């Protein structure tokens, strides 16, 4: 099974009825976490056991490789290969099959099949009301999704581009985040707001926005960012099943990533981070597209003799301070690589959270590599210089580990 | 589909259900017996004829008593309301007024704080519409929501406790004056920003349609009412939702409480075309103008609009011409409005008008009405006592309802979910 990245991640099973976590027998450099008899072996990726594991050690796994994944020998089924947008669609379709109150609303999600093909074919299968093509009125159809969620449906609102959700900020902040609280717990809002964001290929400033930094202060919402087909499907399913409002951040450039994912049903835990590559020298925290820049840099670093530990934080709000903390306690150095702007970004919050909680374990101040505080220019060369590139990551690690 | 509001009360109205595929076997025609409106005077059709521009607020006001007399002359055996309904309506309006007056008192005594917006003068709209609803129907309101909550059935003591910020309030003290919610009574809020609730109402209506058509629930004919003011009618969310509601024929009624003033901004100074009802046909739904100081007229219009929505024929925009006797909120000195204007509308007080109607038409006598008033006064007093005696929310309530699933607070450094931390349930955890 050829996975792009083996992620001994921390995807775990949550809901009672579906399935269990996966356990993998993979040769590893460190001690394995406990194995539980109750779960079944699914795929090449090692996942630690679910909720109970929090009291125990993290599972650590084989080195992430780009090419093959031969290490994972005991996978019971080979799984199937697909692209990230197909994985999202699969997750969506499975949830729509499972629960008839799950519906999709957004611009061009129905007949057009979604501008990134995530909802292709769904309107034919489920009808125009379950996969609703909305007029171009983000604020109102997001509010409509919230009203529908309050009255018993489970809508998924798609922003054609995350940037368009700026128009829906009123509804997301005031209603989505706050309604459960101001109603004294009477109404829940099990809505999922998703869409592609991030810097693409010369899309211009307004289509290259990273809204995670703007939304992170809103109380009452959860934010997750997917980065691989495996976690895209898992997070999509978990977000739909969650009773909380969840914002799922996808990335425009990652939609065509290919990976082999299990045939069995699985979901990823919304609050957990994913261990991409265990290491000893330095902890690199990242998410979404920057994960790939980091892994590219990691190859170079490994050749130079460094051993970075790479964690895909996945949960942007709330942060998985357990996984992150364990890593900090081990390596004592933290580098954050993100695509957000430097000012007020996820990295800034994460820096502050780590400083507050793990200050004693740090040997050096946290370094945060973020995008420049610049509206993304159109020109390719300029655009390249606004985001963090693998060479910068390598330099930063080398400086850190001197 | 045309919605008619004609001055000639003796004239039967054009049958309303002209849609190609009527969805019910109900008799589609409606005989409109209401008489002169103080506003638009022409028949409203799907494609409206050019306006005769009779809409002049400063024009001579037809006194309520004249209107009542006309109604009487018309068809004495065909009153608009029965005795039970009349008493129910009177009681509800009086409750709204007594409650709001008590709120003002309590505010000035320091029992409640913040922004409190009172509904005095507008009771006819709330009662006229909401008393026709079933419990499963939804109501969405704005910050001026106390009376909508009371009309929908939320107990006065729950509303008063909420205003006092006590944990026995309908939102556990967490919402306050501007955020009244009730799942039991399907009151979906209470929104502080204007226009914010309209998409939520559209969503609730969408939900009903979804349940009927996708989930095939036969009796999912819930109607949603969205109440909002004249200021909101210049807001984008209003127009976007009119479009979507008409597009998908959602079971919703948009009720505009046009009280002419958005704090200190006169509607005429803020709006290019002040006739809000005209904006309905622009989106493909009937737009109706009604005298919002007369509960019986509002009720007649509401009946048809709600029935239309329930039959699946789509939304209606109803503009109720009304007036708030007090300022925008208890903090508003209300110096800008002309005292003569206030006096004119005070003479059209909906409660006094209804009382007169009931008495003159022998539907109720003075004692019965006095008994109703006494009962309500006692109810409101009891609500205040209850609220006073209720406890303040404890610290443990602080973090409780932020998430429906408290795992959303995440995993703490010790590996446990924060919500499992005992400090969390005490309300002292840092999240």
Polypeptide structure, described:
The complex is a heterodimer of chains A (about 400) and B (about 425). With about 400 residues, chain A is of the alpha/beta class. Chain A has 2 domains: about 80-260, Rossmann fold (3-Layer(aba) Sandwich); about 275-400, Rossmann fold (3-Layer(aba) Sandwich). In chain A, about 30% of the residues lie in helices and about 15% in strands. Chain A has 12 helices and 14 strands. A 7-stranded mixed beta sheet of chain A has the order 3-2-4-5-7-6-12, with helices on both faces. A 5-stranded mixed beta sheet of chain A has the order 9-11-10-13-14, sandwiched between helices. A two-stranded antiparallel sheet of chain A has the order 1-8. In chain A, helix 3 (about 140-150) runs parallel beside helix 4 and helix 8 crosses helix 12. Chain A is globular. The two termini of chain A are about 40 Å apart. Residues about 1-75 of chain A have low confidence and may be disordered. Chain B folds into 2 domains: about 85-390, Rossmann fold; about 395-430, no CATH class. Chain B has a 5-stranded parallel beta sheet, with helices on both faces. In chain B, strands 4-5 form a two-stranded antiparallel sheet. Chain B has 14 helices and 7 strands. Chain B has about 425 residues and is of the alpha/beta class. The termini of chain B are far apart. At the A-B interface, helix 3, helix 4, helix 5 and helix 9 of A face helix 6 and helix 7 of B.
């Amino acid at each position: 099974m050829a996975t792009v990245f083996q992620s001994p991640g921390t995807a775990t099973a949550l809901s009672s009825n579906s399935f269990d976590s996966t356990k993998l027998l993979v040769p590893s450099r460190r001690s394995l976490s406990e194995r539980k008899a109750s779960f079944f072996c699914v795929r090449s990726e090692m996942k630690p056991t679910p909720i109970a594991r929090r009291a125990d050690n993290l599972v650590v796994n084989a080195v992430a490789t780009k090419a093959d994944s031969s290490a994972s020998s005991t996978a019971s089924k080979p799984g199937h290969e697909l692209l990230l947008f197909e994985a999202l669609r699969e997750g969506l379709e499975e949830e729509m099959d499972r629960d008839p109150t799950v519906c999709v609303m957004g611009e061009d999600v129905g007949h057009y099949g979604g501008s990134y093909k995530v909802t292709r074919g769904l309107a034919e299968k489920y009808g125009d009301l379950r996969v609703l093509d909305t007029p171009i009125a983000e604020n109102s159809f997001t509010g409509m999704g919230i009203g529908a969620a309050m009255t018993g449906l489970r809508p998924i609102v798609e922003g054609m581009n995350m940037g368009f959700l700026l128009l829906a900020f009123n509804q997301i902040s005031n209603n989505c985040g706050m309604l459960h609280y101001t109603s004294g717990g009477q109404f829940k809002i099990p809505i999922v707001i998703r869409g592609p964001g991030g810097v693409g290929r010369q899309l211009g400033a307004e289509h290259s926005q990273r809204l995670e930094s703007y939304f992170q202060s809103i109380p009452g919402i959860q934010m997750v960012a997917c980065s691989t087909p495996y976690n895209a499907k898992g997070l999509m399913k978990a977000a739909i099943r969650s009773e909380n409002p969840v914002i799922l951040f996808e990335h425009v450039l990652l939609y065509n990533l290919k990976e082999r994912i299990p045939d069995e049903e699985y979901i990823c835990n919304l609050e957990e981070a994913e261990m991409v590559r265990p290491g000893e020298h330095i902890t690199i925290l990242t998410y979404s597209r920057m994960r790939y820049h980091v892994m590219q840099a990691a190859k170079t670093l490994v050749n130079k003799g460094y051993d970075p530990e790479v964690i895909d934080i996945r949960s942007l709000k709330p942060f998985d301070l357990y996984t992150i903390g364990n890593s900090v306690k081990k390596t004592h150095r933290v580098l954050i690589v993100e695509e957000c702007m430097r000012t007020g970004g996820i990295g800034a919050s994460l820096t502050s959270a780590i400083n507050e909680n793990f200050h004693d374990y740090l040997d050096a101040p946290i370094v945060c590599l973020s995008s420049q505080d610049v509206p993304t220019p159109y020109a390719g060369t300029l655009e390249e210089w606004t985001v963090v590139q693998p060479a910068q990551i390598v330099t930063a690690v080398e400086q850190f580990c001197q | 589909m045309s919605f008619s509001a004609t001055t000639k009360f003796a004239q039967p109205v054009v049958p309303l259900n002209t849609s190609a595929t009527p969805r019910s076997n109900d008799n589609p025609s409606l005989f409109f017996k209401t008489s002169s409106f103080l506003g638009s005077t022409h028949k409203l059709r799907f494609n409206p004829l050019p306006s005769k521009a009779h809409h002049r607020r400063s024009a001579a006001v037809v006194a309520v008593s004249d209107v009542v007399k006309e109604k009487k002359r018309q068809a004495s055996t065909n009153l608009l309301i029965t005795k039970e309904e009349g008493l129910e309506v009177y009681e509800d309006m009086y409750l709204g007024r007594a409650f709001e007056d008590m709120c003002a008192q309590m505010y000035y005594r320091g029992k409640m704080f913040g922004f409190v917006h009172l509904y005095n003068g507008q009771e006819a709209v709330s009662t006229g519409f909401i008393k026709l609803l079933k419990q499963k129907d939804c109501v969405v309101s704005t910050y001026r929501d106390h009376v909508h909550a009371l009309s929908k059935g939320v107990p006065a003591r729950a509303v008063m406790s909420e205003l006092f910020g006590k944990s026995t309030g309908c939102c556990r003290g967490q919402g306050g004056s501007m955020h009244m919610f009730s799942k039991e009574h399907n009151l979906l809020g209470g929104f502080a920003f204007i226009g914010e609730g309209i998409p939520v109402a559209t969503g609730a209506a969408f939900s009903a349609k979804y349940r009927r058509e996708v989930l095939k629930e036969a009796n999912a004919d819930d109607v949603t009412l969205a109440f909002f003011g004249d200021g909101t009618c210049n807001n984008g969310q209003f127009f976007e939702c009119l479009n979507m509601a008409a597009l998908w024929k959602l079971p919703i009624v948009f009720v505009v409480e046009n009280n002419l003033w958005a704090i200190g901004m006169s509607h005429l100074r803020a709006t290019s075309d002040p006739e809000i009802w005209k904006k309905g046909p622009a989106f493909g739904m009937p737009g109706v103008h009604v005298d919002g100081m007369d509960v019986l007229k509002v009720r007649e219009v509401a009946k048809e609009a709600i029935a239309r929505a329930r039959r699946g024929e789509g939304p209606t925009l109803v503009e109720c011409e009304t007036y708030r006797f007090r300022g925008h909120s208890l903090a508003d000195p209300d110096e800008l409005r002309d005292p003569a204007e206030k006096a004119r509308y005070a003479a059209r007080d909906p409660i006094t008008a209804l009382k007169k109607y009931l008495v003159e038409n022998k539907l109720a006598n003075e004692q019965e009405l006095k008994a109703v008033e006494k009962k309500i006064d006692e109810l409101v007093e009891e609500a205040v006592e209850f609220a006073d005696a209720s406890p303040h929310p404890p610290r443990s309530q602080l973090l409780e309802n932020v998430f429906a699933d408290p795992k959303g607070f995440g995993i703490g450094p010790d590996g446990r979910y924060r919500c499992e931390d005992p400090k969390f349930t005490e309300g002292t955890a840092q999240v």
